[in-house]
Amino acid sequence: MAIGVKALPISFVAHFLAIAGAIMVLVWNISFRGGLAWESTNKSVIFNLHPVLMLIGFIVIGGEAIMSYKCLPLKKPEKKLIHLVLHAIALVLGIFGIYMAFKFHNESNIANLYSLHSWLGIGVIVLYGIQWIYGFLVFFYPGGTSAIRSESLPWHVLFGIFVYVLAVGTAALGYLEKLTFIQNAGVAKYGAEAFLVNFTAIVTILFGTFVILTALCQSPPEDEYSYSAI
């Protein structure tokens, strides 16, 4: 099913929002939160890698993976490979992003997995991994039969959209959780940092919206009736 709009123009808006969101999350964590580090005596800068990796690595690259299959002017096998690789990169960076949150908590003697954001985050990364493995086995290698692929494709698309929407929602909860913590620690509720975090969350949600719109728009004519792709 596709709405009567070409996917490529819609994707341009998503690309712009992706760049804006990436810049905003980097400015927030580098300029306001003190920088990024894998190891540091200042444990907060370790945590700062979490939102950066989750937004740029997971949400943005994952969104680009979804849009790539709708928009790239390439043959189907090439688009399939790009789609698969981008999702793999998103998954790996997402896992590292979650690891950085655990690393920060463990080194700061803070409990793990106590919030709705953390519960949903683990659920999203697990579902994303299942989706990738299923897509790899059925649509890439060794590949299912034509009947299996044609029957699986609508469910693969639907489940992928569901997981991505859940990921964007989980990211929004993460912004809210972090902003609540830093405001309780003294950050002004109407200060520059608070506004930056809230607007970054809005840009993230808008990016996710345009990714989904792109996925629902019309593909190039050569792809309309094929079920051989992820």
TrEMBL record:
Keywords: Electron transport, Heme, Iron, Membrane, Metal-binding, Transmembrane, Transmembrane helix, Transport. The keyword Transport applies. Gene3D superfamilies: 1.20.120.1770. PANTHER family: CYTOCHROME B561-RELATED (PTHR10106), TRANSMEMBRANE ASCORBATE FERRIREDUCTASE 1 (PTHR10106:SF22). Its EC number is 7.2.1.3. Its cofactor is heme b. It comes from Buddleja alternifolia. It is found in: Membrane. This is ascorbate ferrireductase (transmembrane). The lineage of its organism: Eukaryota, Viridiplantae, Streptophyta, Embryophyta, Tracheophyta.
